[in-house]
Design brief:
With about 700 residues, the protein is α+β, with helices and mostly antiparallel strands. Among the domains are: about 85-125 and about 320-440, no CATH class; about 140-215, Serine Threonine Protein Phosphatase 5, Tetratricopeptide repeat; about 555-705, Histidine kinase-like ATPase, C-terminal domain (Heat Shock Protein 90, 2-Layer Sandwich). It is built from 21 helices and 16 strands. It has helices at about 1-10, 15-80, 80-85, 90-100, 140, 145-155, 160-170, 175-190, 195-210, 220-235, 240-255, 260-280, 290-320, 320-330, 375-390, 440-510, 515-550, 560-575, 600-615, 660-665, 675-685, and strands spanning about 110, 120, 340-345, 350-355, 365-375, 395-400, 405-410, 415-425, 430-440, 555-560, 580-585, 595, 620-630, 630-640, 685-695, 695-705. The chain has a 5-stranded antiparallel sheet with strand order 2-1-5-4-3, sandwiched between helices. The two termini are about 55 Å apart. Bound molecules: adenosine-5'-triphosphate and magnesium ion. The site of adenosine-5'-triphosphate (ATP) has 23 residues, from helix 19 and helix 21.
């Protein structure tokens, strides 16, 4: 076995070496470099994507930084402007309002004074009035009379008397503030005596006659009086007047919001809304003006957001300024330093840029000017920038490092994956930039990469498939060599057996030892049979060699099949007389002549008869039939022998192939018989068919085509 393998390899060594060097090795090397190239390309692509995304993130960060820088520069300019140094509120208001208008300032500018009060110079012309009113000079002089009137109002609860007493004082009063205060007291007493109509008239006159003043307790007189009017109207159930008036008052509060102290604004707002809610529940619906509630709702929302800005300024004052005050003192005389801070305000990051204002150059930082930047203020610029610069399939968001809340950025579509995160230089703003990418965009390129990948895979498959084929062929050749070895052994055996027998008979005949003429006759018959057998064996082998070399030729002539079959059966019977075979022949009548090589056909028929005899076992009946079909004539030889298993029925036509069971039944045989038969039938454009059942018998049919028209 191994020696045969070596033989086959040696025989094919040139082919194998060529295959290995020209196909196998180059393919493997190509595949290796191909895979490496794909890998490199992929890496480069990733790198390119990454660089692109990085570049984009950097420009976004730079945009935020430049906005913050611009804001810082503006703040520096404001804090050193003449308007601030000279407390020229009107100019400061104009300057900042103009800058806010043309969007060169984005944040909310706030001025915190030394008393901790603050003002929005971009929104109001001047700071809210000081809470302590300036008491008029005459007030002291009027005190004894005022005390008397107060006694009637509070102790005696004699309101008409109190009204008349206050009225007398009013007559004597010269100062506007004093007059306003006394008139307010008169109105108060009128409310107490439930003369609401009169009270309303009095309060209205206070509003008209004394604009821009504060009450005795330092509140804006106008808004206080307006609130009192509303209260009186509601108490009087004068809803027709109440609703329009309340809308007007709350509108006034909203418009004037920035000039009032935010806490006070909140107080009046609450009071007025409470009254409105009560009035709405008490009044008949037809007395509520059209669109009243929707207008109120709008104002309520606007006030709500204004209060938030107020609270923000307050939060900065409480949380940031004390700290900066300390730092600023240390940095005195170094020019305006802008402090950058972040305030976590109501779950939002607010960037607070703060400059200390030192008007007197005392080195003490008591006043501050600041710009409060919320993400919403930056949104417009960021959106434009994002639209212009974002590469396809990339999305970013800014997330607060402290609250982990998303501050800026669209919803990330599902299926997008995080690519990387980055932080702003110097960690300001303290936001994390998260970059996401669309996997789908990457997939387009990976598809192209896959084309190369599949090409290489196909190349490798072909190479391995080819190698497989070669290995298969080698195995086949080795098997063939093995069969050949067996064949030589069995041919030698086939020759040796009859030759030995013939030698012995001849020896006896030559020595004249056999006298009995019957015996002599029998010996001659045996000699003839054995020599016939040897002749046929040699012929089989020679024919097979011819077939292998492609040299076997056939001469096809019109042949009488019936005669041919009869002769062949006769000679077979004669040869096998001793073995006791009985051959039953049945030939259809009117057989047309068939184109055949007589000798070859006889050889084929003999081979299948020989097989039938060899593989018959004890059953010695063989049926031969010649059947006429529509387009063909079939010579069928049927035995009752061992049969051929289904899986061997094709293999029996292969050269040297001998059935498994056959070898034990008949140890001699070359395995060439049916190979020859098949070849002969092919040369006749015919066919060999095997119908067989193991254990029951075999019928082998030689099918010869009929010429058309026969
Ligand atoms: P050779 O014909 O060269 O002496 P062989 O008869 O063994 O040898 P083939 O005639 O080619 O070779 O037949 C091949 C095999 O087919 C046989 O070994 C046997 O296994 C099977 N075979 C052929 N004819 C029959 C049959 N009539 N009954 C059973 N097995 C058969
Ligand atoms: Mg045979």
């Amino acid at each position: 076995m191994l020696s045969n393998l070596r033989l086959v390899l040696l025989q094919n060594k040139k082919f194998l070496a060529t295959f290995f060097l020209v196909v196998f090795l180059p393919s493997l090397i190509l595949a290796y470099f191909g895979i490496r190239a794909i890998h490199n390309e992929r890496y480069k692509l990733q790198q390119l994507n990454f660089e692109q995304q990085r570049g984009f993130v950097r420009t976004m960060e730079a945009e935020v930084q430049s906005l913050v820088e611009r804001e810082t520069a503006s703040l520096r300019e404001f804090s050193t402007s003449r308007a601030v140094v000279d407390r020229d509120y009107r100019s400061l208001h104009k300057l900042i309002a103009a800058r806010t208008q043309d969007k060169s300032v984005l944040g909310q500018v706030v001025l915190w004074d030394a008393n901790g009060l603050f003002w929005f110079p971009g929104l109001a012309g001047q700071p809210p009035a000081a809470s302590a009113p300036s008491v008029p000079a005459e007030w002291k002089r009027l005190q004894p009379d005022l005390a008397r009137a107060e006694n009637s109002e509070f102790q005696l609860k004699n309101f008409p008397e109190a009204v008349s007493l206050y009225g007398k004082i009013f007559q004597r009063s010269k100062d506007n503030t004093g007059k306003a205060w006394i008139k307010s007291r008169i109105a108060r007493c009128q409310v107490k005596q439930e003369d609401y109509e009169q009270a309303v008239v009095t309060y209205r006159s206070v509003i008209e006659e004394f604009p821009g003043l504060l009450t005795e307790s330092g509140r804006p007189l106008e808004i206080v009086s307006r609130t009192e009017v509303l209260d009186a109207l509601r108490a009087d159930k004068n809803f027709r007047a109440f609703f329009p008036e309340s809308l007007q008052t709350i509108e006034h509060l909203e418009k004037d919001f920035w000039s009032i102290n935010g806490d006070q604004a909140e107080l009046y707002e609450t009071l007025i809304f409470q009254m409105i809610d009560e009035a709405l529940s008490q009044s008949p619906p037809n007395q509520v003006p059209e669109n009243f509630e929707s207008s109120i709702k709008k104002i309520r929302e606007s006030l709500h957001s204004k209060r938030a800005v107020w609270r923000l300024a307050e939060a900065v004052r409480e949380d940031l300024l004390p700290d900066i005050r300390n730092k600023a003192e240390n940095l005195a005389n170094e020019g305006p330093v802008i402090h950058r801070n972040v305030l976590d305000f109501e779950e939002k990051d607010v960037l607070a840029l703060l400059a200390s204002v030192d008007r007197q150059k005392t080195g003490r930082a008591d006043e501050f000017l600041g710009s409060l930047l919320q993400i919403g203020d930056l949104k417009e610029s960021l959106d434009t920038h994002l639209k212009e610069n974002s590469p396809p399939g990339v999305s970013i968001l800014f997330r607060s490092v402290s609250s982990e809340k998303i501050l800026y950025g669209a919803e990330i579509p599902s299926g997008w994956t995080p690519a990387f995160t980055d932080f702003f230089p110097e960690n300001f703003p303290p936001w994390r930039v998260e970059v996401f990418q669309d996997e789908g965009v990457g997939r387009v390129t990976s598809f192209y990469r896959n084309v190369f990948f599949w090409t290489i895979l196909a190349l490798l498959t072909i190479v391995f498939f080819g190698s497989g084929l070669i290995i298969r062929t080698i195995i086949k050749e080795v098997n063939l060599l093995n069969l050949k070895s067996e064949f030589i052994a069995s041919v030698s055996h086939e020759f040796k057996t009859p030759l030995t027998a013939m030698g012995a008979i001849l020896e006896r005949l030559l020595s004249n030892e056999v006298k009995d003429p019957k015996k002599v006759q029998e010996y001659y018959r045996t000699l003839s049979h054995d020599s016939e057998r040897l002749k046929r064996l040699v012929k089989n082998v020679l024919d097979f060699t011819k077939i292998e070399d492609g040299k076997r030729e056939y001469k096809l002539m019109a042949t009488d099949i019936a005669r041919l079959v009869r002769q062949a059966v006769d000679s077979f019977e004669k040869e096998n007389e001793l073995a006791g075979f009985r051959v039953e022949t049945k030939i259809d009548e009117n057989l047309p002549p068939v184109l055949a090589d007589e000798e070859a056909l006889r050889q084929a028929l003999h081979n299948i008869l020989d097989n039938a005899a060899k593989f018959s076992g004890r059953e010695k009946n063989i049926d031969v039939a010649v059947i006429r079909h529509q387009d063909s004539v079939e010579i069928a030889v049927e035995d009752k022998g061992i049969g051929i298993p289904e899986n061997e029925q094709k293999k029996v036509f292969e050269k040297f192939y001998r059935g498994k069971q056959a070898s034990s039944v008949s140890p001699t045989g070359t395995g060439l018989g049916l190979t020859l038969v098949k070849h002969i039938m092919d040369a006749h454009s015919g066919n060999v068919v095997i119908r067989s059942q193991p254990g029951k018998g075999t019928c082998v049919g030689l099918i010869l085509p009929l010429e058309k028209g026969r």
